[in-house]
Design brief:
alpha+beta, five-stranded antiparallel beta sheet, 2 helices, elongated
Amino acid sequence: MKRQKGFSLIELLIVVAIILIIAAIAVPNLLRSRMAANEASSAGSLRTIATSNVTYSTTYGIGFAPTLVSLGPTTAVTAFSSEADLIDATLAAGVKSGYTFTYVPLQANPTTIAPNEAYTVAATPVTLNTSGVSFFCVDQTNVVRKDPGATLPPTTPGTECDDGTGGFPAM
């Protein structure tokens, strides 16, 4: 009688069990890594918005941008104040890397006579505890702030991203 070569059912079950154990250990680490990457991207995006706003203010002479879209790409040959081409289209749309960006200007229709002197941008996770756990904020001071324990970030321009309880410390 010839002996057949191959794996027995028990051997296959042991291999599957080992793979499942490794996956159970690796998946939470992968999710934490993705959240950390989303948070780093969010902080970087806020820095980009703050820098773009300074450029916008010096270029157009009407203070900071009235909307996030105003900082976005242009469809024309040259940029102008409602399409300044300072940030990419994804960020101008307000959602990037698991975070939603809420832009609140002090003045919605700035002019050279009444420039927009303050703004606040809040970054909140699209899905709390899945896409991120921290809230971020930047304003006209160009300091990116992070609050891992906040329930909602401030959205009032001119508050310097402070919720009044010491939240949102500078990063």
